[in-house]
Design a protein that fits this description.
Elements lengths: L8 H29 L16 H20 L9 H8 L2 H17 L30 H14 L4 H7 L1 H11 L5 E5 L5 H9 L4 E6 L2 H13 L5 E4 L12 E7 L7 H14 E12 L9 H10 L5 H5 L3 H6 L3 E9 L2 E8 L7
Parallel strand pairs: 1-2, 1-4, 2-3, 4-5
Antiparallel strand pairs: 5-7, 6-7
Helix pairs in contact: 1-4, 1-5, 2-6, 5-9
The structure holds S-adenosylmethionine.
Length: 353
Amino acid sequence: MNSMVKPGRRARLAFAGLQSARVAFYGTHYLLARLLAGETVQPRTRRTHPLPSRAELLAAIGGLFAQDWRNVEEGLYLPQLDWRAELGLARKSVSYLRDVPKVVRRQRHNRHREVDPKQAKLPNYYQRNFHFQTDGYLSERSAGLYEFQVETLFAGTAGAMRRRAFVPIARYLKRRGSEPLTLLDVGAGTGAFLSFVQQQCPSLATIALDLSEPYLARAQRRAVRRGQQTQFLVGPAEAIALEDASVDIVCSVYLFHELPPAIRAQAAREIARVLKPGGLFVLADSIQYGDAPGFDGLLELFPGLFHEPYYASYARSDLKSLLAQEGLLPMHVDIAYLTKILSFEKVPCGQNA
Ligand SMILES: C[S@@+](CC[C@H](N)C(=O)[O-])C[C@H]1O[C@@H](n2cnc3c(N)ncnc32)[C@H](O)[C@@H]1O
């Protein structure tokens, strides 16, 4: 891992300034998008739980950033203060806002099959406009807007939530010392998390897997720009083109809620298969019912506003049992605002999970 110098007061102030600016910037884009949608978009699901108040949301966001900084102080990862990268992403503002009316039209008419017909060889469950986003996951244009859209949806907190998934990885790497290790990111998308992982631990061999060629192409361009070495695999999580017991760490960020239940179970099996005994699996995805009871109303609202056909089943699924069936022993759970991070260890052969 990178050797860390304890960050000083100046770094803490820069961190606080950057996070506040992000929340203000992406939060404003969220409100603008809602304004453009107006009253014409109504949730398609009935809510039985109340929504959290703005004060509760802001308090939870404050808690997320406070823990983010404590993790930096503990030396788990470097502070993220790359203003140039932030400005690069912020420049997508105009393209994002131009795209909003198209998303709203899809939302209003529940149109979620407007994807490139040339992609028909991809699984049927995947050929759709997830979140009603233009082109689904199937174009360069979509890949270019994706990270801005996610930050806007989460009002500037997505980066901090993803970083929390690195905590169990950092602890595991520390335990393994200087051994050469391989990490696989399943559903790596445009590589936001993997690039962060490589920044923290440049000696780690990494593999990015995703069904979207354009998303991985974007991840690859970023890796080249940053001088990071990664192997890119276009393919499904439910049939990973890697040998049994060939990787030390698998992570998956915001993938499981997008898989139909049967595919989710297959992906869990594949992850367990490619992981070495004693290896680590880190699953970061949406919180589920009961994880943060004041937020259960959001879990009902989300799939009713954004096209998320498998989210409702995900939000009630028993992830620990699903993975235990595959020999992955639950180790730790962490709630980072709207994200839950579960870590598992692959039980060595002959032992039961
Ligand atoms: C919500 S995005 C998350 C991307 C990234 N991990 C992040 O944190 O931004 C879900 C990703 O999973 C990919 N995906 C969906 N179904 C998949 C499957 N069956 N196999 C592999 N990737 C899949 C999508 O192409 C997309 O890039």
